[in-house]
Automatic annotation (TrEMBL):
GO molecular function: ATP binding; glutaminyl-tRNA synthase (glutamine-hydrolyzing) activity
Keyword presence, GTP-binding: no
Keyword annotations of the record: ATP-binding, Ligase, Mitochondrion, Nucleotide-binding, Protein biosynthesis
Every Asn/Gln amidotransferase domain range: 397-546
Subunit field text: Subunit of the heterotrimeric GatCAB amidotransferase (AdT) complex, composed of A (QRSL1), B (GATB) and C (GATC) subunits. Heterotrimer of A, B and C subunits.
UniProt-annotated location(s): Mitochondrion
Family recorded in the similarity comment: Belongs to the GatB/GatE family. GatB subfamily.
A GO BP entry: glutaminyl-tRNAGln biosynthesis via transamidation
Protein name: Glutamyl-tRNA(Gln) amidotransferase subunit B, mitochondrial
Known EC number: 6.3.5.-
Function: Allows the formation of correctly charged Gln-tRNA(Gln) through the transamidation of misacylated Glu-tRNA(Gln) in the mitochondria. The reaction takes place in the presence of glutamine and ATP through an activated gamma-phospho-Glu-tRNA(Gln).
Length: 547
């Protein structure tokens, strides 16, 4: 095959990109790389009216394993490295090179499987899946078709739904399997010079393919499930989960049917690079198929691409012709064996050479769903706040650190963390770990407010100032800028009198029973004193003066 010869030889001379003639590419594009199947499984739960068409969604997700080296070779894994700089002879499919399985990748897949409640197959197998594409120099991908490493799991995800979007809705999606497989290289189509360039840096990087059952019904659910998966993978450290960098690639299988009837013909939507677009692409596709069926047409089994500019899905290639991948066992890799626990290791095999499920299980971190439940339970905060805390990397740890350093009620602290802190982080486009205000410093500021040394509006002002001048404590700023609470009765009386005198209409309204107007006067007093007036005293004084 010409492609791999060019790839291999030029690679060795460290040429930046490998050209591949465009004409061949056109040919290649016509060959489908996806599978064809029209499932006829009945849907487990049918919630809508019998005659109405409902959407059915099943996701196939490729998660790039966080690992220093590739699945079967020692080449480094790195994003945005110079083209073809991370390619070993094996990655370029030079004859005579052999795969050596990366234990880290196996451990990552087992860990992910455990976190998703899968059964871990003690013995799994590698297979060759053949197809011809310029960025696949071997002409086949090593994958796990007959017996994947993990099967039969479930992902529990939750999202905020209901009218006010504050009700926690919890759902399950079944995981059919998780398989280990190699990534392909990348083709870059250079239309100006009418050629295709091949970058093999990504060729052979370890992927986990997660296949979900068609358990979901629309974009919102799919988006929530992927977000949950992303958080789980990040918590485990098995995949960084960045969709825009291609670490998490989601293909959405979408069909429509009438509840109670067999599933409809599905389309597969590709090229979705964010969770937001995933939801939009799915909802668009459900609507499009609904229109087709309602007009009496039939949905074609095809692969479609999502165009984020138009918000539409467009046909890419049809899948009517069955693709034969000529699956065969990978002859250069023995079955992959993992062990239940140290006791089941055969004699002569050291625990550090083997993959031991029990050891991985013991190392599982607290997962996002558990974190949220614990936060609501332990601190009595609202579920939506628990979502915010878990969504942002490091925010939960920040909140808990503040809680350890103060005796304040969690409900008072949570607003500071989810509004004030998150607001400034967003504004400055930075992460919690770079917050110039430490949890201890925030706790100290909150204590000052709680003790009545400053008003809440001044506390916010001080917080912003602390942000601008890292290292300065709240107390220092309050002292330097003289922001302490004014509770000097004579001074307060003077300011209140001035406000009362200059607002006869308001005073009149209060006197005739409209007590709410007092708040306006309080606001005016605070304005005069730059938010520093003791609110309790001001209220008392104003009440006295307007009675
Ligand atoms: P294949 O053998 O063709 O790969 P699978 O049964 O493995 O088909 O399913 C592939 C993906 O398509 C899975 O994620 C599954 O949930 C989804 N899927 C299967 N049938 C449907 C359908 N009718 N509607 C929506 N998704 C489907
Ligand atoms: Mg499949």
């Amino acid at each position: 095959m010409a492609a791999s010869c060019i790839a291999a030889s030029e690679l060795l001379h460290n040429i930046k990109l490998i050209p591949y003639h465009k004409a061949s590419c056109v040919l290649i594009r016509r060959i489908s790389t996806s599978k064809l199947k029209c499932s006829s499984q009945p849907v487990a739960e049918a919630t809508s009216a019998p005659q109405q068409l409902v959407g059915v969604v099943g996701l196939e997700i490729h998660a790039q394993i966080s690992s220093n080296t590739k699945l079967f070779s020692g080449s480094s894994v790195q994003f945005l490295a110079p083209p073809n700089s991370l390619v070993s002879f094996f990655d370029a499919s030079l004859p005579g090179t052999l795969p050596v399985l990366n234990r880290r990748c196996v451990e990552a897949a087992v860990m992910t499987g455990l976190a998703l409640n899968c059964t871990i197959n003690k013995k799994s197998l590698f297979d060759r899946k053949h197809y011809f594409y310029a960025d696949l120099p071997a002409g086949y991908q090593i994958t796990q078709q007959r017996r994947p490493v993990a099967v039969d799991g479930v992902l529990t995800y939750s999202f905020l739904g209901g009218k006010k979007r504050n009700q926690v809705i919890r759902k399950n999606v079944h995981i059919k399997q998780i398989q280990l497989e190699q990534d392909s290289g990348k083709s870059l189509h250079d239309d100006v010079n009418n050629q295709t360039l091949i970058d093999l840096n990504r060729a052979g990087v370890g992927l986990m393919e997660l296949v979900m059952e068609p358990d979901m019904s629309g974009g919102e659910e799919a988006a929530a499930a992927v977000r949950e998966l992303q958080l789980i993978l990040q918590a485990l450290g098995t995949c960084q989960g960045n969709m825009s960098e291609g670490q998490l690639r989601v293909d959405a299988n979408v069909s429509v049917h009438r509840a109670g009837e067999p599933l409809g013909v599905r389309t597969e939507v590709k090229n979705i690079n964010s969770i937001r677009f995933l939801a939009k692409a799915i909802d668009f596709e459900i609507q499009r198929q609904t229109d087709v069926v309602q007009r009496g047409g039939t949905v074609k089994n095809e692969t479609r691409a999502y165009d984020s500019k138009s918000g539409e899905t467009v046909p890419m290639r049809d899948k009517e012709g069955l693709q034969d991948y000529r699956f065969m066992p990978e002859p250069n890799l023995p079955p992959l064996i993992v062990f239940e626990d140290n006791a089941s290791l055969p004699a002569g095999i050291d625990a550090c050479q083997a993959v031991v499920v029990q050891t991985i299980k013991e190392g599982l971190p607290e997962l996002p769903g558990i974190k949220r439940d614990r936060l609501v339970q332990a601190y009595g905060i609202l579920p939506e706040h628990s979502f915010t805390l878990v969504n942002e990397d490091g925010l939960m740890e920040y909140f808990e650190a503040v809680m350890r350093a103060t005796k304040m009620e969690p409900r008072k602290v949570i607003g500071w963390v989810t509004n004030e802190l998150v607001g400034l982080l967003k504004q400055q486009n930075t992460s919690v770990s770079h917050s110039p205000v430490t949890p201890a410093a925030l706790a100290e500021l909150l204590e000052l407010q709680e003790a009545g040394h400053i008003s809440s509006s001044v506390a916010k002002q001080v917080f912003q100032e602390m942000w601008r001048s890292p290292g300065k404590t709240g107390a220092e700023i309050i002292r330097e800028q003289d922001l302490g609470l004014v509770s000097d009765a004579a001074k307060l009386h003077r300011v209140c009198q001035k406000v009362v005198d200059s607002h006869p209409d308001e005073v009149c309204a209060i006197r005739s029973g409209n007590k709410k107007v007092l708040n306006r006067l309080m606001g005016l007093v605070q304005k005069e004193l730059k938010g520093r007036a003791d609110p309790v005293l001001v209220r008392e004084i104003l009440q006295e003066k307007t009675s």
